[in-house]
């Protein structure tokens, strides 16, 4: 039985929809006493000085622009993958190259995000950094850092 491009694209769309529903459900069911994002944690839990808060806001503004560009790049890579799948109707060289491109764009986004996290950390004093590090470790692994 040969699986066509339509079925593959439909499966991808269903997987994305399921992921969105899962993320929404997780957001609704989690402990609402916990900050929602790393940025919320930093702003709400670390008692930033006015200077730290201003510098953090500048960092966040710059990263928002960079993230939007990276998200658009990833979206374009996904569109190229869809076109390759439609053209080849199998796991051929164009599909393989398009998948590699999607993975590269995902990697670019992850690298930029980690660089942003370290830029945020650099604004903090040692006590804030220790709490920040624990929060990041917990966010990434589900286990508190040392």
Helix/strand order, N-terminal first: HHHHH
Strand tally:
0
Indicate the proportion of strand residues: under 5%
How much helix is in the residues? over 70%
User: What global shape is seen?
Assistant: elongated
* Helix/sheet category: mainly alpha
- End-to-end separation in angstroms reads 52 Å
Count of individual helical segments: 5
Task: Give the CATH architecture of the largest domain.
Answer: Up-down Bundle
Radius of gyration: 20 Å
The main β sheet shows up as:
none
CATH topology of the largest domain: Four Helix Bundle (Hemerythrin (Met), subunit A)
CATH class of the largest domain: Mainly Alpha
Average residue pLDDT: 85
Number of domains: 2
Which regions are unreliable across 5 or more consecutive residues at pLDDT < 50? none
Task: Describe what you observe in this structure.
The chain is mainly α and 146 residues long. The chain folds into two domains: 1-30; 36-141, Four Helix Bundle (Hemerythrin (Met), subunit A), CATH 1.20.120.1490. It is 81% helix and 0% strand. The protein contains five helices and no strands. It has helices spanning 5-29, 38-45, 50-88, 93-122, 126-141. Helix 1 (5-29) packs antiparallel against helix 3 and helix 3 (50-88) packs antiparallel against helix 4. The radius of gyration is 20 Å and the shape is elongated. The relative contact order is 0.10. Keywords: Signal. Residues 1-25 form the signal peptide. It comes from Tsuneonella suprasediminis. This is Periplasmic heavy metal sensor.
